[in-house]
Amino acid sequence: MTEKSNPAFRSIVVGEETASSEYSGERATYGGISLKTFLCFLLSIATGIGALFIPVELLYVLLVIGPIAAFISAMIGIRSLRAAMPCSIIYSMAEGLSLGVITALCDAVYPGIASAAILATITVFGVSLFFYATGLVRASGRMRKFVLISLVSIMVISLVAM
């Protein structure tokens, strides 16, 4: 296999049981990945909801700290398999904090927009995770083309509607 473009997968050796000598555990399964993704999503939601109750004076400071913490934890988690689990927890919390702060600020300017955005996000994520976990949808080339065509179509329709 050629060099992989995703830095998270560069250390994986084709045909080997483990991703590297740093980690020797079980193989990843769709169910396990789906469960861990769901737990990180719940952690993000909980942190985001908590951010909605933070005083407005602190929101701007947290709007800077959250993305920086998310970026640093992602970079460390990508480079070290041992640090991947704690970094995924830190990343989920930082992401939830950032999105919660942005949601609180947007809701202050446009009241009611936050609840619609949260409901839409939870719905899309839940349906996507269900399809992925049950195996109804796999990330194939054909699926990528379908999603790209759908996304561009929605963007064009949105621009025309404006």
What does this structure look like?
The chain is mainly α and 162 residues long. The chain has helices at 30-51, 56-79, 84-109, 113-134, 141-161. The relative contact order is 0.10.
Characteristics:
about 70% helix, about 160 residues, globular, mainly alpha
In short, what is this structure?
This protein is mostly helical and 162 residues long. Helix content is 71%, strand content 0%. The longest helix has 26 residues, at 84-109.
| Arithmetic mean of pLDDT | 81
Ends apart, CA distance between termini: 46 Å
Question: Could you say which structural class the secondary elements and strand pairing correspond to?
Answer: mainly alpha
Number of helices: 5
Helix content: over 70%
SSE order, as H and E?
HHHHH
Radius of gyration over all CA atoms, rounded: 19 Å
- Which blocks of ≥5 consecutive residues have pLDDT under 50? 12-22
Secondary structure layout plus pairing:
Blueprint: H1 30-51, H2 56-79, H3 84-109, H4 113-134, H5 141-161
